[in-house]
Amino acid sequence: MLDRWLITLSAQRGARPATLVAYRRDVTGWLEFLTGHLGGPPDLARVATTDLRAWMAASRARGLGARSLSRALSAVKGFHRWLADAEGMEAPAVAAMRGPKVSRRLPRPVDIPAARALIDAVRTDAREGWIGARDAAVLTLLWGCGLRISEALSLKGADAPLPDVLRITGKGGKERLTPVLPAARAAVEAYRRLAPFALGAGEALFRGARGGALNPRLVQKAMETARMGLGLPATATPHALRHAFATHLLAAGGDLRAIQTLLGHASLSTTQVYTAVDGARL
User: I want to staple 114 with a disulfide (CB 3.0 to 4.6 A). Which of 110, 128, 205, 265 is the partner?
Assistant: First the structure.
């Protein structure tokens, strides 16, 4: 049943492979716990509140944090919702269970000078010019267009030269339109001019050293090296550039709803955390 649920998530909701792996791990852990806790294969329609509390307590005892446990409970709830719809196996206790309180962490963007310095550093410090241009282009898309790194690396050869507005498929398969700044377009073109590979229309735009699709870890590593060289904190990650996109727009008087749309956030409350970032950071 677990496999069928995951196939449904992939086909109908466009769940990403990494999300499916996490959901499989979380729900498998839940089912294995129930089997041991109850002394045999569980009746999933008869799960009790006490079973859930015991699982959550055992998870915390293993060192699972509140945020990770909340995510695991969300996966378990999703699995049981699917069981109710697909198999008629309703478990009211699961639907009613509340997760642990999770304190919302504030975004930690980099400021404008730091963002520029980071992009310049990855461009000039790379072992080959085309690799530096590639990494700089990816990071410019994160800062200038608010893309997630997975979204930037999902671009195909057919997407370049970048248009004035990009159609991006984000989390959950949701599409959004993202304006492209001239600086982002120029950075991608600089990379294309230097790339030693034919960037076919249906192939990945950003390539690794051997010509395959670029691994996000390589971009993260390049930025890690750059931020250490610049003396920036460990929070200066590629995702911090996406945070910077939002906070810099907000500081310039951007509308919160518009920023929500540009970031691809499903809920306005997710975007509202940027309003809590202190004025010095903005």
Answer: 110
Summarised one tens digit per residue, pLDDT across range 38-48 is 999 999 989 99
Domain with 152 in it = 112-276
Active site residue 221: no
Identify whether residues 32 and 158 lie together within a single domain.
Answer: no
User: Is 60 designated active site?
Assistant: no
Kindly state whether residue 257 falls inside one of the protein's structural domains: yes
Catalytic one of 134, 242, 243, 248: 242
- b (16+ CB within 10 A) / e for 115-148: bebbbebbbeebeeebbbbbbbbbbbbbbbbbbb
Quick one: what percent of the chain has pLDDT higher than 90? Answer: 60
At residue 282, the pLDDT reads 40
Catalytic residue among 171, 176, 192, 281: 171
Instruction: Say yes or no: 120 and 71 in one domain.
Output: no
Both 8 and 90 in one domain: the answer is yes
- Please tell me whether residues 76 and 130 are part of one structural domain: no
pLDDT in tens, 60-95: 999 888 888 988 999 999 999 999 998 889 889 998
The answer as to whether 10 is a domain residue is yes
243 is catalytic: no
Distance CA 56, CA 253 (A): 43
Active site residue 171: yes
Q: In the chain, how many domains are there?
A: 2
